[in-house]
Each structure stands twice: as structure tokens, then as C-alpha cells.
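Lecture 7 notes: from sequence to structure.
We start with the chain below.
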Amino acid sequence: MNIQKNIIGSITTVGSATIAHTFYGINSSGGTISDNTIGSTDAGTTNSIWASSSTSGNQTIYGIVSGANTTIISGNTVSKLTNAATGSRGNLDGISIGNGTNTITNNTIHDLTNANAYSSSVRGIYLNSNTAAAQTITGNTIYNLSNTNTSFAGNVIGIYYQGPTTSGTVSKNFIYNLSVSASSTNAWIYGIQIAAGVTTYSNNIISLGGDTKTTICGIYETGAASNNNNLYFNTVYIGGTLISGSTNISYALYSAVNTNTRDFRNNIFVNARSTAGGSNLHYAAYFNYGSSSNLTLDYNDYYATGTGGVLGYYNSANVTSLPLIASNDANSKNTNPSFANAGGTTAANYLPSANTLNGVSGTGITTDYAGSTRIYNSMGAYDYAVNSITVNATSGYLQVII
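Predicted C-alpha cells for the same chain:
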């Protein structure tokens, strides 16, 4: 079954104080879903699909839903969807995937707004599959996801992955600008939330921040037994400033449990977030355990530069210098990667210029975020020359950078 090149928008559901609605842009049990627009790409449109009115019950919007069979979701745009109900529950998902063999590639998901409170979520891509088959999420761009409820205590998530123990791939995704109401102090924002699955996460770029009192996590890795995860060549940047007295913590990387096998190499984890008058609140890498069994940790760049920033956390204590964990990080760095434009809204803004971020081969990742062949194996999502010979463009002299 093919569902292709449709435009679905200009739709309003009107309920009541007690009647809520569920809306599906496309609801399929499999097949190829490609090149559709759910919502609008017009810059002047704010609520192309708008679920309004309900103040109670569970009101949910889905851009694209599929599951149970082999599904390819590719090249779609899901944009300008609003769940305006102000009840206690109700999710808003750009793409929601269930059981089956799923491939989700090159979709653009943006400007999703939810007004529900408490247990609700906004999720760009939500995958929950226990089918023993490879799952692939690659090349997607996700941005401007938000919850506007002042009492919101749920999650805003770029990609949520709960997959099987068959090896999956999450790569080359760009996630940025996820937000909540300034009055919502109990919410969490996740770039990628890893709930379950055996998966390799590579060449992803995540940029989160803002000045609201929110807990932020670039990559959250649950670490459940048998759910083995590899993190290779990812770039994570956390920014923003909180007012004095704020207690919200942020993490470029959060590894929750040590019962699985973990291999974290060639990543850049930067936390530049600040809390005025705060201390030890913003971590480049946070390991919520006291044993490094089943962990490979090396060739990463950790950098925490904000007020209250700290390099890492391990064994119930802050770590302020390398190695973060003894017998690991022999080749890791604590270096400013000098991004082209940290906090920017294009992937190229996260191209480093630091000339010492040498990574390592042997991870099986042969291309970078842009699809270029990895020659240098430099840390982060972009492969670029480090320790190289360059020619000064103005004087013409040869400069050797070592």
C-alpha cells in the first residue's frame, strides 16, 4: 500500500468541556507513506490542524500513525499541529510507530504545540515496537516542539525510542528548539530518549536550551538489561541561562543504569547552560551508577562552560577533570569544540573548528551527518580535518597545526 503526495490541513475539531477528540492525519497498518504534508508549510499559518475546546478527557493528535507490518515513512512534512485542549491528559505526536519493521527517514517535523497539562507529551517521533526486526530512524529534522500549559509536568521529546533487541539504527537526525511554558518548572525536555532496544545512535545533532526553568537532557540512555546501546559521533549542545535560585538540572548525556552493554565513543557533549548563582547543576556527562562494568568510554569531548557547569558525575560525586571514570577516557578531551554558531538553527552551525578532536575508527560508522565518507574520524557528527596542514589564505605561508 502506498500513501503519497497528499496535503491534509485546514481542519478543526470542536468538542466541549467533556468531549475530547482524537485526530489522525494518516492512520495506516503498514506500507509506504511518503511525500505527504500533514498540516501546513506556510509561514503565516499557526494552527493548520487544531483540536480545540475540550477541558477534560484525553485528547490526542497524531500526524502519521502506523504499525504491525513493514512500514516506510519517508519525506513527509508534519507541521503546524495544535492540541489546544487544556485537560489533564493528551499527547501530540508528529509520527507514531508501533510493532513492525519500521524505516522512518528524511521527514521534517516542526511547530507542534500542545496545551495539555500533567501527564501529556509532545513527541516528534515516537517508536514503540517489540517486533524482532531492525528499526531505522535516520535523516529526520525535528524542531519547534512545545507545550504551553503553565502547569505542564510532562515531557517534550524529539525522538522517543523503545525498540526490540534486534539491532536498530538512529542516525543523522537534527533536533533543536524544544520548549515549555516559562511557568512550567517540573517538565523535562529530551532530545533523544532511549527507553529500550539494541541500537546504534550515530551522527545525530541535538541543540537544546532556552531560559525557562526546565530539566533538559540531550541524550537519555535508560540502560535496561539486554538493551545494549552504542553512541558514536553524536554532537550535543545545551545552552541557555536560568535565574538565580533555579534548581533545574541539565545533561548533555545521561546514562541511568549499568545493567546493559554501552559503548560511547567519538561524541561531543557540550553543556554551556548557566544558573546565576548556581553550582553543579549542568553536566556534560552524568553516569547514575558506581560501577563501570560493560562500559566502553573513550575518544569523547566533554565541555561544560556555563555558570554552575560541571564536567561529569559518577559514583555519586561530581567529576571535574578527566578521566570521568577511572580506566576509561584515555583519549578523551576537555576542549571547546568551537562550533561555527552554537545554538544556531542549521546543522552546519555545529561544525567544530577545534583542531585536536581526533576520534577513532572501528565503530562501523563510515559516513558523517552530511553523508561524506569519514576520512579523519573526528569527534562529533561532522568529519573534518584535524591536526592538518593548512595554507594561510592571506599571506600564503604554510602553517602546520599540531
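Points to note: Residues 179 and 225 are 31 Å apart (CA to CA). Residues 389-402 have pLDDT under 50 and may be disordered.
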